[in-house]
Structure formats: structure tokens, C-alpha cells
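G., the chain you wanted modeled:
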Amino acid sequence: MQSKNIPAVIDLLADDVFWRDMLALTWDFHTFYSTPSKDLVELQRSYPDIAWIQAFFDFETTVGIASGVFRLVPLADGSWKAHTVFTNLGNLKGFPEENGPRRDHQPNHGKWATKRAREIECVAEEPSVIAIGGGQSGLEVAARLKMLGIKTLVVEKNERIGDNWRKRYAALCLHDPVWYDHMPYIPFPASWPVYTPALELADWLESYAHSMELDVWTSATVTSVIPGTKGKKWTVIVQRADGKERTFEVNHVVFALNFGSGMGRIPDIPGQDEFKGQILHSSEYNLATDHVGKKVTVVGACTSAHHICADYVENGVDVTMVQRGPSYVMSTKEGMPRLMSIFWEGGPPTDIADRVAASYPNSFLTLMHIRVTKDIADADKELLDGLRKRGFKLTLGDNDSGFPPMALKKAGGYYLDVGASQMIIDGKIKLKSDGPISRFTQTGLLFEDGSTLDADVVVFATGYADTQHPYRALLPESLHDKLYPIWGLDKEGELNSAWREVGGRAKDGELGAL
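Predicted structure as C-alpha cells:
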């Protein structure tokens, strides 16, 4: 590559090679796929008819220190050639992280609290970056930039860090294993549960922000983000809890606002104003005990719907799930060890596991998941057969590729079972899945087949608002049509806008730093 001998490079690659790059060679996330129209070297056999040699390598570009992973596959002529290549930028030259031997070595006698208060209020130095949202993503970005010496202000609308989890329904629990969820610089303790309760995560995020000494404004709201002045790219107005505003001129703005900024989406079903009961979105749901003695209907059949229905059952509330379309279901017991084997007890260090996971192009991974999804379904056969007998509509996802591609494409459509499926099988969670909803009545729901369902409370677990909505709410109208799609996969199989620029770069770079 240094000699620019393109034929020699191509000769090392299989005809159907994948090459995925994260910033190292393209300053973006790209996957290149050719179709007919040093250490940690390992022979791997994921299935009897699939084999490759996986190896890691390090390299440098003119500006950065990078690493990569390649996989060699055997060809019919006996040679081994690269089938997947992954290149990843790790650090920029000349910008070492401010930790380890570069940490502050000076004693601090009685000055730390004053120093931190001034840093948080941006008294002596204004931020170069503003991160909108103080959940895990906003905090992780701020932590990484802090270690690079880039002052970042995190603006969080809630009263406390962690409230984005703390204020959701009490029964919420993560379905990602703890080894997958480690945050930079401060991993979870070895005693941490495999699946983290939301309230425990909320407290962890608050302690993380404090321990990492991140500059965070809580009870604060960004009211506008517009092209800036003074040679900077963005003017950001922030309103504090007391109503006072402060204007910042920054180089970069990071939106870390979840899907649709947590704004629930409720289908426009006629007759809602006639209904005598209560209508909630799942984002407004808190405790099952709020509805003891009432009949509850939950519209939706994916993760939140199952959690909420199970919560109602465990608290003695009569609940019916209304399923409008098929859902993918797998048990965490059978699915997670197969899908997340590298992020499991005894797995490699997080840095290695992350690189290995990222080294699989999403389009290639989808092909592999077809096999894994079948293995999981075979292991879950008794559970899935029980659901079918109850009338629950199932899918194995696009091309039978299961949960991960569904998460990447639409962040929904599935349930990773931790017990609610058995409640459906046992009839504890009642199920109605035989037709679309026509309208509300005074006492419940009318379906297109003429059947009815009485309810005192209807909870819509039907997803969240348009992912571009929070951007359009803050950006000037002139930039709305320059926004890229948020989430989903582009034509290369890369996630739209996640960890990337979110808008087309104008000639003057107008929308190049969001």
C-alpha cells in the first residue's frame, strides 16, 4: 500500500472481499465489497463448512495510529486470501490521552472543589464541543474528548444524570450483557449483574460523570443550534433552570438524544376523544400498581410491551396484549451466549472484543446470522411452539436473519425473552392478534372484524417519534433538507448518521460538524 502497488494489494484479496474502514483511510465509516457483477492469529471454524484465519495488525497513516483485523479464507487452488479486512483509526498523532503517565501529578490542597465548579461553569475556558444529552452516549463522547484535552460541555434536560433511565418504568432492565456495555476508562465492577436494572444503570451514569470529572449542566436545555460567527461553526443557546440563557460559539455539536428524543409515537386511531378511560404511551408508564383493579390493554408486541405486560401480571392486574404484526422472539438464555459469545465471561479484553465485533461488515454479518438464528430457534423450539399455539405471530426477521439486523435497520420488532413469553403461553398475559384496530369506543377498542376489547387503560408500546425531529426542532429550517436519515443502514450496510456527520456538507462546510 505504501508503494501504491494496487495490483499487488488486490492479489492478496479474495474475489468477494469485504473491506470495512472506520476513519483510518476515509475519515468516515465505509464498507467496500467486491462482487462478481503479527499477533492474535487464529484458525476459526464457526461451522463445519466455514473456516478462516483471523489476525490483528497495527499500522500508521500520516495522521494517525491505526489497527486492523483480517480474515483469510481457503480457495479451491489451495491458496489463502483475504475475505474481510477491517481498518480502524485509534488515535491521532500528536494528541495522546491525558491519562496514565500524563495524568496530573501535582498535589491539590483544598482547591479541587473550586476548580471543578469553575470548570463546570466554563468560567476560564469555553467549550469547543457541546453534547446535547447526558445519557451514556453523551457521557462517553465527553469522556473521550476530555482525555484528548478537548473541553466538552454536556447539556442534560433532566434534573440528574441518569434520569433518562431513572424516570422510565420501574421494571425496565437492559438485555445487553454487562461485558458488551462497559464504558471507557471505568469498566463495570466484576460483581455487576449480567443484565443491568435501569435504576442501577442510572446511578452508575451519575457516578461516572462525577468520577470522570465531566462538565455537565443538568436542568438545562439547548434551545437552538445555528451556523455560528467569530470563525466558529455553530452558535448554541442554552437555557438553565432559572431561565437564564448563555450563548456558546463551538466547533462541534453532538446530538445524543435517543430515538426521537424519547417522544412517544401513538397511532392516529379514530375515537380517542370518545374513550372514557386513560391513554398512555409506554414512555409515560411507570408502575403497574397505578392500575390495580383495572382492565389494561397494551398495544404492541415487542420489548416494552412484553416488559409492561409482565409487570402488570406480577402485580395482579388484568392485561391483554394487542399484537398488530409479527415479532421476532428469542430467549436471552439461548440467544445471548450465541450472539454475544465474545462479550461473555472469560472473553477477550473489551478493546479486542470491540475490534473483532466491528470487523464484521454488517451485510456479511447478516449472512452469518441466518445460521445463528436457526440454531437459536431450534434451541427455543418449545417456547416458540407454545407461542404459536396461543396465536402469537412470529417472524425470524428479514431473510431469517434474526435480531441484530432488525436492531440495525429499525431498532425494533423483537423481544428478547426473560419470562413474558411463558406468561403468554400460560394465558397470564391475554393475547389478541386476530385483526387490526378500527377505532376506540367509549369502553375500549373496536377491531375491523367487529370484535371488541374492553379496557380502562390503553398503553401504546408503539415506538418513538421521527428520529430527525429533535434535529429539526433545533436547527434553522434552511438546514432541514440537508439532514441525512438517522439510523437504519445505508447502501454500504453502514449505520446512517450514528457516530458520523448527520448532514450533507455544503461548500462552506456549513453542516459538517454535527
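The chain has a mean pLDDT of 91.

Shout if anything looks off.
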